[in-house]
UniProtKB/TrEMBL annotation:
It comes from Streptomyces triculaminicus. It catalyses: L-glutamine + H2O = L-glutamate + NH4(+). Homotetramer. Keywords: Acetylation, Hydrolase. This is Glutaminase. One of its GO terms (molecular function) is glutaminase activity.
Length: 303
């Protein structure tokens, strides 16, 4: 596969869509990002790295961090997390309170905000420092020791995080948080504020394409649990547009309102695309189109 040629064609296809949509202006620090940007990277399971556009420019990972949080919790604590969070698509916005109340404090899946807060709580219990544990893992897997948090983004999210606080307090009232709500929120906001490039994220997610093997060849997850992460990404990874994403792209994916999307082709490669303009459901307009075109050109999907 000539990945570079494919990426160039994908970038040309996506170019007319770059700048469409809206940046995540409900997080003030993200409202300042230039919407007219696009980057994409692919890393194959043998370590080959290819990119196009602004593929080495760091951006805020936001909810993409949820995929790594889930993997770390499974690695550290096994499948007990599934007693506290489900695996079903939500069909509702990622910060919905309605569904959480109906289901008595048990989030529908780990990729809506309520579910990610439970995962962060569990990682905090297992490690004593959830956000730093994630940052160190991402540095190791990406091979980039310079990865860091963005204090301005974390502060912005904290100052405008009333809905997340409400979700956390509601779950705490049902006994579904072990740590104090402020602690869980702090680590959650720091995780979301991590800055990474398409290159960094495609490398860091490589263990999902290698069926649980880390970059150094050691095993992070048993093959079964790597499959579980990929499965939940496929069905729940793009907010309440997961069905449409599975239909169009056909790959496990996890998006973030920073405009990034990671995608996995097990046994072949990982992809990351970034373009800050979001659709009404919080997914990158140009990013989804780019991944759709990539699978069309290559014929690769999980189906």
């Amino acid at each position: 596969m000539d990945y570079q040629a494919v990426l160039e064609e994908v970038a040309a296809f996506a170019r007319p869509l770059v700048g469409r949509g809206q940046v995540a202006d409900y997080i003030p620090a993200l409202a300042e990002v230039d919407i007219a940007q696009f980057g994409m990277a692919v890393v194959d399971v043998d370590g080959g790295i290819h990119g196009v556009g602004a593929w080495e420019r760091p951006f805020s990972v936001q909810s993409i961090s949820k995929a790594f949080g889930l993997a770390l919790v499974l690695a550290e604590g096994g499948d007990k997390i599934w007693e506290r969070v489900g695996t079903e698509p939500s069909g509702n916005p990622f910060n919905s309170l309605v569904q959480l109340e109906y289901e008595q404090g048990i989030p529908r899946n780990p990729f809506i905000n309520a579910g990610a807060l439970v995962v962060t709580d569990r990682l905090q219990t297992l490690t004593g420092d959830a956000s730093t544990t994630m940052l160190e893992f991402l540095r190791a897997e990406s091979g980039n020791p310079e990865l860091s948090f963005d204090p301005a983004v974390a502060k912005s999210e904290s100052e405008h995080g009333d809905r997340n606080a409400a979700l956390a307090h509601f779950m705490a009232s049902y006994g579904n948080l072990d740590n104090p709500v402020p602690t869980v929120l702090e680590h959650y906001f720091w995780q979301c504020s991590i800055e990474m490039s398409c290159r960094d994220l495609a490398l860091a997610a490589g263990f999902l394409a290698r069926h649980g093997l880390r970059a150094d060849g050691s095993r992070l997850l048993p093959r079964r649990e790597a499959k579980q992460v990929n499965a939940v990404m496929l069905t729940c990874g793009t907010y309440d547009a997961a069905g449409d994403f599975a239909y169009r792209v056909g790959l496990p994916g996890k998006s973030g309102v920073g405009g990034g999307i990671i995608a996995v082709i097990p046994g072949r490669c990982t992809l990351c695309v970034w373009s800050p303009g979001l659709d009404a459901r919080g997914n990158s307009v140009a990013g989804v189109a780019a991944l759709d075109h990539f699978t069309t050109l290559t014929g690769w999907s999980v189906f």
